[in-house]
Amino acid sequence: MTRQVVSPVPAGDEYYDLGSFGHSITTSSGDAQIWFNRGLTWVYSFNHVEGAYCFEQAIAHDPACAMAYWGLAYAVGPNYNKPWEKFDLGDLHRSVQRGYEASREAAKYAVNATPLERALIEAIQSRFPTDQPATDYAALNKGYAAAMKLVYDIFGRDLNIATLYADALMNMTPWSLWDLFTGKPNPNAPTMEVKAVLERALAQEEDGPYLNPGLLHLYIHFIEMSPTPELGINVADHLRDLVPDAGHIHHMPTHLDILIGDWRRSIASNHNSTLADDKYFHKSGAKNFYTFYRLHDYHSLVYAAMFAGRRKTALDAVTRMEATVPEEVLRIQSPPMADWLEQFMSIRLHVMVRFGMWEELKCKELPHDQELYAGVTATTHYAKGIAFAATGDVATAREEQERFHQAWARVPATRRAYNGKIVDVLGVASAMLEGEIEYRCANYDKAFASLREAIELEDKLPYSEPWSWMQPVRHAYAALLMEQGRLEEAAQTYRADLGLDHSIIRPRRHPNNVWSLQGYYECLVRLGRMDEAAMIEQPAKLALAAADVPIKASCFCRLDTAETPQVLNGCSKGKCC
């Protein structure tokens, strides 16, 4: 495979605003240095496509720049969100050959490099030992991490070396550094070594660690699945606006905002993220892998808006997102973009269920291509079934349930939901829909058993931030428990969802969300536990005031809300006496 030669573009031409981050390299060209800085910033921002382009530009300006070839090899390799196992065969062969050639070119020109640069270049050889895909990815990742440890042992005070070593360690067990159910480090992951490397680097205040987007980015990924994600907030706040036109950098702090219940901050940062992403979309289009990250950033905006009770914000974001995903992108075979992106095409349906848009859902049309949009088709039948059940049309709800099961069976197992699969997410939908239908049939024991099954399935989904199942089943379960007067059970459910006890795993808690605050407050008032109600009254008022729709229950599937306590003391949207 011969590397495509690109024409050099002057670094002074109009380009994205990436801030001032950089890493000095050995080069005879000022433009090559600028393009290298841009490439490193982009890969630290997880836009590996644009990072590779920038490293190619650095090579075009200085064909003998060893570190530009190193950067290209690094950019086309695996990363935390796309390990070797997630490459399709065609993408894998192209990437390995490209990385192998770039790494060997780096070694070829390393004679004039600094000792640190030569060490990095030697380490990258172990990521691409041959020009053919490996048969043992775990061994390959372990070998690269071992090579980076040798670099770190000598040059560990360099913040970029620390970042790259932590990255190598994390990629040995991506998204598995912690055991979510025990809250302890995964014994099969190098979690404590990652912790030591990142925290040592962050403590080097004289070296400006809080100006390094890669270091801060990785720390958020490290801490988010831990039992104490709040420990990363200071890091997140430094990262939030560090790289102005890198949308994913604006977004990353919201992984922690969501976990600590700062929904409004999450909305603001994710909105900024989508604005930056729109710049990239308008210049580079959608036919690139960064589209996955763009849609993830939109997803996070919608998710935060849903938990804040902001229907308009959520729907506006969905509309903007959908306008940036032409169908031809989903039809790209390598990488198989439908497998990566179809998960986002169902987001509107989750918003409509969340906000009880029953009449609109009843009229919702199915996708025109039910093979390409297999997951959307199944989710549409689920959502329509919920809508018919909630409005008392059980017969039609049953018909939609049957169509849902038929559509669910046709969803390819290759369709991803972040670290999980769409088919598994639809398992939650199946139990949820059964519970809603049985409830409308007054089969309450069966209904609540099905909803508890849905909760169990939801809790077992692989970690993702945000979650692929966008409305916690506990919100519907507790709302319907209240409607049946089972207040103690509802109160326990709300308490768990808000994270006021330790009965569920840390990532499944949703502090300060308006739905459970309202529901828990009502439970406590109706139970006569007024001292406890007073403690959450102010947070509930604040959350309800920030919502853009009236919220009288934690799920619009609860119909009996006439006696709901008025938390806002007579104030209503648009007017206050």
UniProtKB/TrEMBL annotation:
It comes from the Eukaryota. This is Tetratricopeptide repeat domain protein. It comes from Aspergillus caelatus.
